């Protein structure tokens, strides 16, 4: 028998032709957990599909199916176990850094790994950075592993905060800088820490514009850099214009767009977009 090239090959004699065409070609792997998005027509075959993933990917021990979209303040989604062990906690590795993740209770996307690195590479020694929506702390931990910087990492989700504390501990030996985890609302933190930051990271695309006044409050009075994430269509200028208007409403000035790029496609013709901007 020919060696299977992917998990779908293991299902050739089990699923119908039509079902095979509906199989997702890719899925996320977080640590040793696979998370798949199955079309409704395949939900009745979910455990067979999950078992094929377990058999093909020897490093995977649990397979969960996505049930519904990412929702709520914590940006999480419902998952349903379709094969393997029911344990949503795992250790995920990104650029050699280790993160503790409870896939059922915190937001994490392995598709942002280059984005975490890309932002961290821009930070200079001596900077003070605030990550307003840190999740389990990937931006902060990448930064501290590369630079002698002080990073305040804020998240409102108590589970994300617990995962972040453990992730900091897991990487402590590699740190050049410091990460201070904060459990709370970044709007309140912005009042307590007004004017401290050289750089602010704001990865909450669905509410980014709403949080601009707080991000600007965190920046030093002389200004600094923001990494602004939003969802948008194919016109990147539209996102820049919205950001510019929001910055001007807070009586600050967008001096320079350092970079604008599509981070990833989130739906047909809809992207997560980042603007790195210098604010004065
Ligand atoms: C899209 S996730 C970003 C996660 C992280 N930056 C990453 O790259 O993995 C957004 C995070 O913002 C947090 N959040 C939402 N509203 C918040 C608020 N007002 N203050 C602090 N954190 C908040 C959520 O709990 C969630 O973990």
Task: Give an account of the 3D structure.
The chain is of the alpha/beta class and 280 residues long. It folds into 2 domains: 7-87, Met-10+ protein-like domains (GMP Synthetase, Chain A, domain 3, 2-Layer Sandwich); 109-279, Rossmann fold (3-Layer(aba) Sandwich). It contains 8 helices and 13 strands. A hairpin with a 2-residue loop joins strand 12 and strand 13. Helix 3 crosses helix 4 and helix 6 packs parallel to helix 7. It binds S-adenosylmethionine. S-adenosylmethionine (SAM) binds at residues 73-75, 107-108, 112, 133-135, 138-139, 154-157, 160, 185-187, 203-204. Residues 73-75, 107-108, 112, 133-135, 138-139, 154-157, 160, 185-187, 203-204 line the site of S-adenosylmethionine (SAM).
What's the quick description here?
With 280 residues, the protein is α/β, with parallel strands linked by helices. It has helices at residues 17-22, 46-56, 113-122, 138-146, 158-171, 186-192, 212-218, 236-249, and strands spanning 28-30, 33-36, 62-71, 76-84, 89-94, 97-102, 128-131, 150-155, 178-183, 199-202, 224-232, 254-267, 270-279.
């Amino acid at each position: 028998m020919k060696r299977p090239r992917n998990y779908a090959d293991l299902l050739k004699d089990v699923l119908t032709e039509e079902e095979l065409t509906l199989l997702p070609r890719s899925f996320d792997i977080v640590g040793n957990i696979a998370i798949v998005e199955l079309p409704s027509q395949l939900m009745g075959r979910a455990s067979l599909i999950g078992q094929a993933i377990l058999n093909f990917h020897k490093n995977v021990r649990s397979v969960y199916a996505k049930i519904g979209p990412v929702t709520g303040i914590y940006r999480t989604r419902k998952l349903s176990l379709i094969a393997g062990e029911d344990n949503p906690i795992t250790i995920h590795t990104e650029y050699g850094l280790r993160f503790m993740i409870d896939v059922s209770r915190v937001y994490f996307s392995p598709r942002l790994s280059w984005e975490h690195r890309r932002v961290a590479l821009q930070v200079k020694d001596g900077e003070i950075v605030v990550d307003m929506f840190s999740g389990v702390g990937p931006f902060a931990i990448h930064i501290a592993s590369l630079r002698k910087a002080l990073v305040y990492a804020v998240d409102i989700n108590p589970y994300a905060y617990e995962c972040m504390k453990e992730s900091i501990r897991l990487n402590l030996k590699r740190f050049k800088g410091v990460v201070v985890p904060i459990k709370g609302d970044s709007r309140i933190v912005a009042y307590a820490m007004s004017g401290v930051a050289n750089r602010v990271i704001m990865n909450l695309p669905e509410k980014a514009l709403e949080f601009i006044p707080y991000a600007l409050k965190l920046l030093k009075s002389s200004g600094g850099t923001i990494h602004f994430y939003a969802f948008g269509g194919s016109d990147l200028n539209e996102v820049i214009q919205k950001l510019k208007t929001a910055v001007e409403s807070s009586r600050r000035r967008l001096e320079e767009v350092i970079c604008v790029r599509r981070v990833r496609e989130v739906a047909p013709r809809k992207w997560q977009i980042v603007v790195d901007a210098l604010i004065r």
